[in-house]
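Thought: the user wants the 3D structure for the chain below. I'll pass the sequence to the structure tool as-is, report back what it returns, then summarize two notable features.
Action: structure_tool
Action Input:
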Amino acid sequence: MNNFFDFVTIETTDISIVSERLFEIKEIGLKVTGPMITVLFTTFLLIIAAFFLNAFFIKKEGAPGKIQSSLELLYIQLSDLIAKIVGDKEVGRKIMPAISAVFVYILIDNVLGILIPFLGAVTYDGSSIFVTSTSDLNTTFGIASTVVLWTHYESIKKNNPIKHILKFIKLDSVANGIKKGPGGVGLALIDVFIGILDIVSEFAKSLSLSLRLFGNMFAGEVLMTLLLSSFALVLPISLMFMGIFTGTLQALVFAALSASYFGAALKDD
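Observation:
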């Protein structure tokens, strides 16, 4: 009986939120981890896919084929969703490329290990080379920080640096409050306090976006590892479909929240 259970189960490794270091490039002091390799691999795949689709399936003239029609339909649906989130079609059209890039990258990264199962078996010095990068906090925080900084860049482009800064440092409110007397000064101080909260919220955006994606993907990988270790004899296909569903959902949530941040930064006062 014990031999049977030994056959249908596999040993699990210690679970850690810190990615294992594969090797180090000592000349520049860079410690290379599995998620870093996955980021480069995913980016390479997306670049190759873009060139391939553009060269063989995207027609500039004439009736589009089935693949192009499917991609255009997906683009329209995603564009409509973003426009509804931000509440402005023009803003939605403007941020569509950025949000689409974030969505597609996170989606492919989340499901890459499921779509190409043998990637997990590729190891270096006993450690897996291809690890889902969104299960690493460094990756999710990097993407989230880039999105938040991008919203500020777009806001500065639309308005100007001074007007953008005054959204957070309410110097104009203080000046107007002094002119209105004691009551105006009190309201101006409230505006200053709200501005400080807005500054804190900008940092919180990066943290909340990154922790939400990281937490869900890391927990999913842990759950998948534990369940697969208990049922190694029969591969639970349902878990693979659940992983694809979860990866798609998390990519959509991240993109939707990013779109809402862009919409808030670009909307008219």
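Final Answer: Structure generated. Residues 22-49+68-266 form one domain. Confidence is low (pLDDT under 50) at residues 4-10.
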